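Tokens as discussed.
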């Protein structure tokens, strides 16, 4: 449901109208949980530079004791001419409600990741700025900035690379849904990025670090993904993660296409429920010392 899907839609024999595009990205995530209708939404808040692009929505769970852990949803790249910015797509709005009703502060935010030129360096700075805003506004968000997960979709996968070689305060888990994970195998990315940048933004190239060996990583693989050069990178990441001893949780959806999280298939439900269990495990409160 993200950048490469946009590319496929545009390149299709009959490219969709703006209304058809909006309908496709507005399909909600297939899973529902109790309490989604009671989620509070803080919409269109500023972060980073605070311009029209740098905005986020926060989905807040019902008040139950102390501050809640945080899940940042990182979209893939989109062109400047898309009719609706990603945080306002129905898929992300429904993800926000599912996560908030499950007990998390869910953050959806627009950032500068683009297509076809990825602008990864700029988008990486936006992720850091969003994390800083979460820390600065933790009280208003009722958020615990010491318990954060980064969840990247599709072309947003490279934005997980930094946390595999650098400690980021509070970030305790990473997840990718049908993500790009090795840009060394992507001619499109190599066309726009210098070799050192390709490596820096390839999660598969960062797995031999001490940080990566401690970082829980959830990966949802779409077995019928038609995005060029994506699956080879996912499979290279898996092989390297196993060799490096990364704490990897891999869910393969053998018959699923790219963007399968809206598909009401039993395996989709299994993947999504396992993802929520992964978050519950790795964003639980730290045990008391001593």
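Sequence:
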């Amino acid at each position: 449901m993200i950048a490469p899907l946009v590319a496929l839609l545009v390149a299709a024999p009959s490219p969709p109208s703006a209304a058809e595009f909006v309908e496709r990205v507005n399909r909600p995530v297939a899973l529902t949980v109790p309490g989604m209708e009671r989620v509070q939404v803080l919409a269109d808040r500023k972060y980073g530079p605070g311009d029209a692009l740098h905005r986020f929505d926060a989905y807040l769970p019902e008040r139950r004791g102390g501050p809640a852990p945080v899940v940042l949803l990182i979209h893939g790249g989109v062109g400047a001419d898309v009719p609706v910015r990603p945080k306002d797509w129905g898929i992300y709005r429904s993800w926000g409600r599912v996560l908030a009703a499950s007990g998390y502060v869910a953050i959806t935010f627009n950032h500068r990741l683009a297509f076809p030129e990825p602008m990864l360096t700029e988008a990486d700075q936006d992720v850091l700025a969003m994390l800083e805003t979460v820390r600065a506004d933790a009280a208003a968000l009722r958020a615990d900035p010491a318990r954060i997960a980064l969840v990247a979709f599709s072309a947003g996968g490279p934005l997980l690379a930094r946390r595999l070689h650098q400690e980021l305060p509070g970030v305790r888990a990473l997840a990718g849904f049908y993500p790009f994970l090795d840009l060394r195998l992507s001619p499109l990315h190599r066309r726009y990025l210098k070799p050192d940048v390709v490596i820096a933004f390839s999660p598969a190239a960062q797995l031999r670090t001490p940080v990566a060996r401690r970082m829980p990583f959830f990966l949802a693989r779409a077995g019928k993904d038609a995005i060029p050069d994506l699956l080879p990178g996912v499979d290279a990441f898996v092989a390297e993660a196993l060799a490096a001893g990364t704490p990897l949780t891999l869910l393969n959806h053998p018959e699923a296409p790219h963007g399968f999280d809206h598909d009401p298939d039993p395996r989709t439900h299994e993947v999504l429920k396992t993802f929520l269990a992964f978050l519950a495990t790795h964003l639980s409160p730290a045990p008391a010392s001593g």
